[in-house]
User: Fold this.
Amino acid sequence: MNAPARITTSGPQPRRRTVPVDVGGVTVGGGAPIVVQSMTNTDTADVAATVEQVAALAAAGSELVRITVDRDASAAAVPKVRDALAARGVTVPLVGDFHYIGHKLLADHPACAEALAKYRINPGNVGFRQKRDTQFAAIIEMACRYDKPVRIGVNWGSLDEELLTHLMDENARSDAPITAAAVTREAMVRSGISSAERAVELGLPADRILISAKVSDVQELIAVYRDLSARCDFALHLGLTEAGMGSKGIVASAAALGILLQEGIGDTIRISLTPEPGGDRTLEVKVAQELLQTMGFRAFLPVVSACPGCGRTTSTVFQELAKEIQGHIGDRMPAWKASYPGVEAMKVAVMGCIVNGPGESKHADIGISLPGTGEQPSAPVFIDGEKAMTLRGANIAGEFKAVVERYVAERYGAGT
Assistant:
């Protein structure tokens, strides 16, 4: 007799418990909600442009924003950016991205060192040969002096060549050599952990350290973070580097990060999308939020479920209504969020025919099932699983929006 099929429970594996890190008032790790972050692509020395983009990213929901600090002009601009943002009421923590000369910029610009909420350094280019240790130590000393956390950001495009060469040579002499890809992963993990441990030796507490190990290949990213998470308890930042443009970048990032998050790995994420020419930089924030929300980790915006359409839905009414409702929710969220706590978890369904429409609408908090091809011109509305009314006529969209408004006020209003 065959054994009964094993029934699995839904939901992700328990979150991996990492050391919590305070980044300018935002807690990363330690079981805190997974943090969304992004990065500007402006010249930081252009204060006005940088302020505008940071403000836009923060308004979209980025909880940390990284900015490039690559030369004296950009380092000198950092406190001006911070102050201009504060004057606009934008308090999102700023993370400084340093490569090659971070030690010098932090030493020469103490106002920059103080204004930043976190420093990001790459052990692959913090210094070379004899200078690597002293320049790394200089940055850690500044972090200790100003009580700033540091992200040790390893990247396979700028990996410590000396370490990689040593491991490759060691592997070649082994009786059971592993693949070059596995050696590279080991070099990344070892670089991140050894750098973090060295920072602790230099006086930076473990609760001021995060690690990332970024690659641009989905399977390699999954493998390296599994290794990394198994060998340390530092807070981890997830991101598929150079993910690409458009749907390719979105799909690749969601595939890699979704698997890791499901396994309980990751404390903060960034979706590194290449924007279209003149495109909206905030798209990477929206994608990160949607990934976390669709997986059930966090709620940022009410979810609108809508059917894809088929031969039973030759009318475009449900498509137009789904778009209109999604836009309406986005427009109303700033006011809703201020007045109606919990509204971000609301689920709305806009369905196109009788096959799945009523059922899906019942599963949502509020849903509407529009008539499909050949069906009666009526649209039942379901509220909290029960049919509440039927809308008819040319103004179904307006009437349904009014129903949604009433539902939000009644369910999420004060005293409910």
Q: What stands out?
A: The two ends are 53 Å apart (CA to CA). The CA atoms of residues 103 and 138 lie 6 Å apart. The chain has a mean pLDDT of 93.
